Amino acid sequence: MTQIPRLTDAIRPRGSQAMLRLLCLVFAVFLGLGLAAQAAEPTLTVSDGTTERLYSRSELLTDPRIREVTIAPDPIYSRSMTYRAIPAARLLEDLRPGADDHIQVRATDGFSVSIPVRLLTQGGSGGAEAFLAIELPEAPWPVLPAKNQTAGAGPFYLVWLHAPRGTISSEYWSYRVAALTVVDSPTKRWPGLAVAAKVPENDPIRHGLERFVAVCMACHRFNGEGESDLGPDLGRPMNPVHYFQPAALRQFLRDPGTIRTWSERKMPAFAKADLSDSDIEAIIAWLSYKAGRR
């Protein structure tokens, strides 16, 4: 007698296939989530032009030289802050930069500042000591207190121990860091910034160049030379000394909001501890020199 197949016999293979497909789908989803989380993890690029190293946040947090540092007060947050941080010298030791080289610190928001390598590698010599603070994923840092800010200083933030205010340029406290790159000195990279050899060593023009590089070039170019585009070029189409009265230019460099302000203004006021009156005079002397007035 012919056996009639049961309905369940016909259904079972299809049900098994459906279950297998479901399990594969679930596995793919979890795998995708894992890969997405891995891809989204913040990374830091460290290079010297020929060698490049990519550090993940988790890798930096497990480095044996990481330590806890407290900055009191932190100049960016204007309060005491404690960080998990790694010595900046540790990140540069495999690159072996030259004594006169600089490190270009580039941030995710377009900020870019050139720091003498000697400052970043002098830890333990009694001077300021540079650290890269690392934001913990489970404990994000507060939103920056400055106007129009919507995020914190993370994931990486260059901080300094044993650095009384005024001893390290305010622009060297670089936040949202994305890359550290060994480069030539600014005047070697951008010869148009340099002053003539006949200018005396103690002339304010030379000091003005140093302060312009340390403070202004993090946001501005000069006649196209530099990296950052956060602010306007200070040489093109006109040098500020051509359209500012001297007193107004001094006031603008001290606190631009007292001269003009607008909703998207990024340039902050500078305390005298960060930019002294003599620094401002020196920057104006250099700008005047470049404008052909001296």
TrEMBL record:
The keyword Protein biosynthesis does not apply. Pfam families: Cytochrome_CBB3. PROSITE patterns: CYTC (PS51007). GO terms for molecular function: electron transfer activity; heme binding; metal ion binding. Keywords: Heme, Iron, Metal-binding. Residues 203-291 form the Cytochrome c domain. The keyword Aminoacyl-tRNA synthetase does not apply. This is Cytochrome c class I.
